[in-house]
Design goal:
Radius of gyration of chain B: 24 Å
Number of helices of chain A: 11
CATH superfamily of the largest domain in chain B: P-loop containing nucleotide triphosphate hydrolases
Strand content of chain A: under 5%
CATH class of the largest domain in chain B: Alpha Beta
Order of helices and strands of chain A: HHHHHHHHHHH
Radius of gyration of chain A: 20 Å
Number of strands of chain A: 0
Distance between the termini of chain B: 34 Å
Largest sheet of chain B: 6 strands, mixed
CATH architecture of the largest domain in chain B: 3-Layer(aba) Sandwich
Number of domains of chain A: 1
Distance between the termini of chain A: 28 Å
Number of domains of chain B: 2
Oligomer: heterodimer
Strand order of the largest sheet of chain B: 6-7-8-3-9-10
Chain lengths: 254, 305
């Protein structure tokens, strides 16, 4: 109940923030721009629309999660609004989870808005809607949930600028960590390989959530991959949130 | 009388500076607040008033000592259900309107919609903010924020209300109104804990006080017990008497428009002055005996620090 109240208030806070609409505007421009790019391309124009459209949704969604998420907890402490909140009968983890679900709800609404523009664009191009595109958007949402948890974790102990940098690094590393897998295959068994394997286990692999290639090129999407990616997203987010709660529980609000 | 808040030997230190050095802010604070009283927590800036309050509210964790609210550990949500708090310089969600703001806190306490609406209407009336109910808090002045802050502190009909500098930054009329609300709370049987460095306010409304200086409680008790009834000096304003004739009778403070203000320390001398004025056919404009005030007591305690 308390988590729901805080989540709805966080949602209210986020949707009254101008930065959200600025990002949404640029996302819309970027998605629509894919149509212009498609005109300039030789070959299957729909592929370009799908490729650029999904990439825009993912990127702008990530920016929303990071730029709003990193300020959520920090602002409460900095503006001292947390003083009155903690004095009420709420536990600290309820506060943090409320913030998390509030931002998740905001991102859901934003993702829905971006998807409507994207799907309309594809629909007017092909006169069909593929369920695979919806699956791709769903996994973007799972990725955004994970990024929200990361942004909130950094927000618990660091300023918004630093947190944004950390979260952005997490996003970039997450999208390139798959290359470690290739490196592991090439490395000889031994210390180096074990180290690389350990690194690959710890680092997030956000490419798990990207179905862009499959959607654009019409490749099959195995159900097992979808189940694995969903579970991966949930477990990773839960782990990050648990870490955030652990830090937040013992914090002094001076 | 039941104890609603009991603080037992709490210590708190913070690490400050680039090379962290421990600074002890609270050095063994002990006091208790009884049900139904207005308790004044008095101290100069930086004495540790707000730090004590933050410990009570669970915003910071004391290094040592225990805090009990209504006989329960202070972090127990059941204890916090009966608590109201107004922070110093209230900062609230400025994107909310006054009504939404109270609605939000009401929901946190799980108050049912029907009752919530009734309480919000009553509280807006109590703090005189009915007209601003639909206005976003970012458009509020300092005094308006203080009032709406007080309203949020009362949303759960608390038994104990903690107010941190509730009268700071208000104009005289605003202060009187908030003071009236505090007295009204006591009449309703609520306990009020008032932290302030404005002596006048504490003196006017508090039943009992604790004075904190440098992280230690220097004195606590009923106001009447702390301040002695002995007359310290008498202030006499007279006219029609030459100033040199008054030499030796008292300390002459000002002499304007033929009136002389004298500070007289011995009671016999007051009599002498009265006789002298009568003899010279002068006039006595005022005669005010001054007993010890809270300010005198406070200054005595703070000065050695």
């Amino acid at each position: 109940m308390i988590i729901k109240v805080i989540a709805l208030n966080t949602f209210k806070e986020a949707v009254r923030d101008r930065i959200l609409y600025l990002l949404l505007f640029f996302a819309a421009v970027s998605i629509l721009f894919s149509r212009v790019l498609a005109l300039l391309t030789v070959g299957d124009r729909t592929k370009i629309v799908k490729d650029v459209g999904l990439a825009s949704i993912s990127l702008f969604g990530a920016l929303m999660a990071i730029l709003i998420g990193t300020g959520l907890v920090y602002k409460e402490i900095e503006k001292r609004t947390i003083f009155t909140l903690i004095s009420k009968p709420i536990r600290r983890h309820e506060f943090l989870l409320g913030k998390f679900f509030g931002l998740a709800l905001t991102l859901f609404v934003m993702l829905l808005s971006m998807s409507v523009i994207f799907l309309a664009l594809v629909f007017f191009q092909t006169w069909t809607i593929e369920w695979r595109m919806l699956a791709a958007i769903f996994f973007i949402f799972v990725e955004l949930i994970l990024l929200t948890a990361v942004a909130i974790l950094f927000s618990c102990f660091s300023t918004p600028i630093l947190s944004s940098l950390f979260a952005l690094s997490f996003y970039l590393i997450g999208h390139f960590s798959w290359s470690l897998e290739t490196l592991i295959k090439k490395a000889r068994p031994g210390a180096t390989r074990t180290f690389l394997q350990a690194l690959y286990t710890i680092l997030p692999d956000l490419e798990n959530f990207s179905l862009k290639t499959e959607v654009v090129h019409g490749l099959p999407i195995p159900v097992s991959h979808m189940l694995y990616s969903t579970a991966y997203g949930i477990v990773y987010s839960a782990f990050i949130l648990a870490l955030a709660i652990l830090i937040f529980r013992k914090r002094d609000f001076i | 009388m039941k104890t609603v808040l009991s603080i037992e030997n709490i210590h708190k230190s913070f690490s400050v500076g680039f090379i962290p050095q421990k600074k002890e802010i609270l050095q063994g604070i002990t006091f208790s607040v009884a049900e139904g009283e207005i308790f004044g927590y008095l101290g100069p800036n930086g004495a540790g008033k707000t730090t004590t309050l933050k410990c009570v509210l669970g915003l910071i964790f004391p290094d040592k000592g225990t805090i009990e609210l209504f006989g329960r550990p202070h972090l127990d949500p059941r204890a916090k259900e009966r608590l109201g708090f107004l922070p110093e310089n209230p900062y609230f969600y400025d994107y909310l309107t006054a009504r939404e703001f109270l609605e939000f806190y009401g929901q946190l306490f799980g108050i049912k919609r029907h009752e919530r609406e009734a309480r919000i209407a009553a509280l807006l009336k109590l703090v005189g903010m009915e007209k601003a109910a639909g206005l976003q808090l970012r458009k509020f002045s300092r005094g308006m924020l203080q009032r709406i802050g007080l309203a949020q502190a009362l949303i759960n009909e608390p038994s104990l209300v903690l107010l941190d500098e509730p009268l700071g930054g208000l104009d005289p009329l605003g202060r009187k109104e908030i003071r009236d609300v505090i007295i009204h709370l006591r009449e309703e049987g609520k306990t009020v804990f008032l932290s302030s460095h404005i002596l006048q306010d504490i003196e006017m409304i508090c039943d009992r006080v604790a004075i904190i200086v440098g992280g230690r409680i220097m004195s606590q008790g009923r106001l009447a017990d702390l301040i002695s009834e002995r007359i310290l000096f008498t202030e006499v304003t007279i006219s029609g008497v030459e100033e040199k004739e008054l030499a030796g009778l008292g300390e002459s403070l000002t002499a304007q428009a033929g009136r002389t203000l004298l500070k007289v320390f011995e009671e016999d001398k007051v009599q002498d002055i009265l006789e002298l004025v009568q003899k010279r056919h002068g006039r006595i404009h005022s005669l005010i005996p001054r007993t010890q005030t809270l300010e005198d007591l406070f200054v005595d305690m703070v000065r050695p620090q």
